[in-house]
Design a protein that fits this description.
The complex is a heterodimer of chains A (about 240) and B (about 300). With about 240 residues, chain A is an alpha/beta fold. Chain A folds into two domains: about 90 residues, Rossmann fold; about 140 residues, 3-Layer(aba) Sandwich (Rossmann fold). Chain A is built from nine helices and ten strands. Chain B has two domains: about 140 residues, Rossmann fold (3-Layer(aba) Sandwich), CATH 3.40.50.2020; about 140 residues, Rossmann fold. Chain B contains nine helices and 14 strands. Classes of the chains: A alpha/beta (about 240), B alpha/beta (about 300).
Chain lengths: ~240, ~300
């Protein structure tokens, strides 16, 4: 499509990729592997993308994979009204792994939540994609918890974290994640977990069984993306859209 | 030197490795539940010249992606040269703009192949001889015609067959094998609807009456071209029709249609791995592994 646009004399091609596939393979986590995300990003650039706009890329350092501008906006602002509507008092923001701490801190500030907690996840790379919640930092006893993450793949991370929080005495447990892929048996895992509700955006086109899942709520990032696109066009600040 | 293979054509990689007295190096391709793949090389590649075998037949995009990731892993692991044996090159039919608004898909693939770090490409019977020009790295268009010529000599000796190109696009190919064998050729003129890709009309450009007609083409996907051409040849008095095609894409129910057609025998090569369920009694497979190995050694 980029090539067709370029050959059709487009003066600039702005690639809007709300969900950026392969973004989790952003580094060499072991020897003799590719950096798949860098392969994807650079091929978009070789083909002719002049600018990329993503939503909650897995690691913001990935913007450095290309020479062209890469803007990454957060879905946080789309989530906040939906979370506030739930009127959760005594709320703890939970990061389901070590890497998500900055995101959790960001949510904590916006929601004026009292505390933050981290669930430690040990991922055995050689066993491929198997992860398990093991331990946590923070106190959730008698409190409401909101797990925040960038994406839900097969649901293992978020379901384990929720169950761990329940064991530690959390009351109502929610999760919000920008990209709801719900691959594998994610829907079953969510149904069987201690999660009350999972909020995701429409960054990917959801299949019918996701849309009608009783525990899944979808908020639209269309207004936010539209505003970002408008600002790219007019040259207004994108960063002010990010930091609010 | 090391030989690695993607998942598209491991049997060919093993055959090629044998010519070098080597084993195919281990490589793991794991697919995550969301469909993303993770490639892990099972052997140290630092300073090595690597022969990477990957055809980009269907599923074309998945095979290309796997290729890009493998090359990236090899380069980041210190491989010095990556020689890509891509016996079948996907997107080769999209080598120019057919209609306004299109891109040139093959050129995109070529750009990315170069960008990820491939140093040389070896392909077989690409759709147009101009394709190697799209690349800026050395790109070799090898041919399966010598193997087909041998097969024809062996199977039709003492007879007077005629070679047939099922369309005008194959004129260069048919001339080449005709010179190799010193057997005359003829062509079929077919018209294709650019919007649907369907063949709308065809006619024969010569005499085939009383002769065995040997059709030569670069690939066989739905098999329709060959099947329709066979009917036309028989209507014009050919005594028997045989089909030769380098790339056996055999999409949909092509195998069944070819088996049920009036074609007596179908000869293809192993540029594309044919799954067991697509094999059929009339099909004979000849290997291009020796030609590939010789070309790489040069």
């Amino acid at each position: 499509m980029i090539d067709a646009a370029k050959r059709g004399s487009a003066s600039e091609v702005i690639l809007i990729t709300p969900y950026f596939g392969y973004s989790r393979q952003d580094r060499k986590e072991m020897a003799r592997v590719p950096i798949s995300s860098a392969v994807v990003a650079s091929l978009m650039e070789y083909v002719g993308a002049d600018r990329i706009l993503t939503l909650d890329i897995h690691a913001e350092q990935e913007e450095g994979f290309i020479q062209h501008p890469w803007d990454n906006i957060y879905a946080t602002y789309a989530f906040i009204p939906a979370i506030k509507k739930k009127k959760l008092e005594n709320l703890v923001i939970v990061s389901p792994d070590k890497g998500g701490v900055p995101r959790a801190t960001f949510y904590q500030g916006l929601l004026k939540a009292s505390e933050m907690a981290i669930v430690y996840k040990e991922r055995d790379i050689s066993a491929n994609n198997k992860s398990e919640a093991r331990a946590m930092v923070g106190d959730v006893r008698g409190k409401n918890a909101l797990i925040v993450d960038d994406l839900i793949g097969d649901g293992g991370t978020v379901a384990h974290a929720a169950n761990h929080l329940r064991e530690k005495g959390a009351k109502r447990i929610f999760a919000c994640a920008t990209h709801g892929l719900f691959s594998g048996d994610a829907l079953t895992k969510i149904s069987n977990s201690a999660l009350e509700k999972v909020i995701v955006t429409d960054s990917v086109n959801h299949r019918a069984e996701v849309l009608k899942h009783p525990k899944i709520e979808i908020v639209s990032i269309a207004p936010l993306m539209a505003e970002a696109i408008r600002r790219i066009e007019t040259g207004d600040s994108i960063s002010s859209l990010i930091v609010g | 030197m090391l030989i690695f293979s993607g998942s598209s054509n491991k049997p060919l990689a093993q055959k090629v490795a044998k010519y070098f007295g080597k084993e195919v190096s281990p490589l793991e391709i794991f697919t995550f539940p969301d469909g993303e793949k993770r490639v892990t090389l099972g052997e140290r590649a630092v300073g090595e010249t690597v022969i990477l075998v990957q055809s980009t037949n269907p599923p074309v995009d998945a095979n290309y992606m796997e290729l890009f990731l493998m090359v990236d892993a090899l380069k980041r692991s210190g491989a010095e040269f990556v020689k890509l044996l891509m016996p079948y090159m996907g997107y080769q039919r999209q080598d120019h703009i057919f209609r306004d608004g299109e891109g040139v898909s093959l050129e995109i693939m070529a750009k990315i192949i170069e960008a990820v770090g491939v140093s040389e490409v070896f392909a077989f019977d690409v759709h147009s001889i101009k394709i190697p020009e799209i690349f800026t790295i050395p790109t070799h268009n090898l041919s399966a015609l010598p193997i087909f010529a041998e097969k024809i000599k062996e199977s039709f000796s003492g007879q007077e067959p005629i070679l047939v190109s099922p369309d005008m696009g194959g004129i260069r190919r048919i001339k080449e094998i005709s010179e190799m064998l010193n057997i005359p050729f003829t062509t079929i003129v077919k018209d294709r609807d650019l919007n649907t890709g369907n063949i709308c009309d065809s006619k024969l450009n010569g005499e085939v009456a009383g002769k065995q007609a040997l059709m030569i083409d670069d690939m066989m996907s739905t098999g329709e071209t060959m099947i329709k051409a066979a009917d036309l040849l028989l209507e014009n008095g050919a005594t028997g029709v045989f089909a030769f095609a380098t790339h056996a894409i055999l999409s949909g129910i092509a195998s069944q249609k070819l088996q049920e057609s009036k074609i007596e025998k179908v000869f293809v090569t192993d540029t594309v791995e044919i799954p067991d369920e697509n094999l059929f009694p009339k099909l004979e497979i000849v290997s291009i592994s020796k030609i590939a190995a010789d070309a790489i050694l040069e």
